[in-house]
Structure formats: C-alpha cells, structure tokens
Design a protein that fits this description.
2 helices; two-stranded antiparallel ribbon; alpha+beta
Length: 80
C-alpha cells in the first residue's frame, strides 16, 4: 500500500488528530477520525447495517479543504 499524506486537522496539535490520505494503488481515500458515539452510530444504523469490517468516523468541517484536496488528487490520478 502506498499512502500519500494529504493533511491533518489544522486545529489540533498535530498528534492523534483526524487525518486524510489517498491510496494510489487501491484508488481510495483513507481517513482517520474520531469514533462515533453510541447515539450517532444508532442514527447511522437507521440507514442500514455497518459491517464489522467498517466503521463510522467523524471528521470536522474544517477538514473540507483537505478532503477536497484528496478528492482532486484521486481524480487526477484516475485520469491518466
């Protein structure tokens, strides 16, 4: 796996914070975020099950630029 770092949450100390990467080999956006609490998870489950191999994570709106950058980089990589 070859991850390309995009950004960490700009409003944190740079450690243990939401982060965005892209995986060029698998053509995926990879995120690290805060775990959803039980109430949020229950609300998400109203849309359908979350398999054991998946998780609900939270990323703050202030990371929109980083997520957009990851999407742009992924799109550029797909258009070769």
């Amino acid at each position: 796996m070859t991850l390309r770092f995009i950004a960490k949450d700009p409003n944190t100390d740079g450690a243990n914070c939401p982060t965005v990467w892209i995986d060029m080999e698998r053509q995926e956006i990879v995120t690290q975020g805060w775990k959803a609490d039980d109430a949020m998870t229950a609300e998400c489950l109203e849309s359908g099950p979350v398999p054991d191999s998946e998780a609900v994570v939270r990323l703050p709106f202030r990371m929109i630029d980083a997520i957009r950058e990851a999407c742009d980089a992924a799109e550029r990589a797909a258009v070769r």
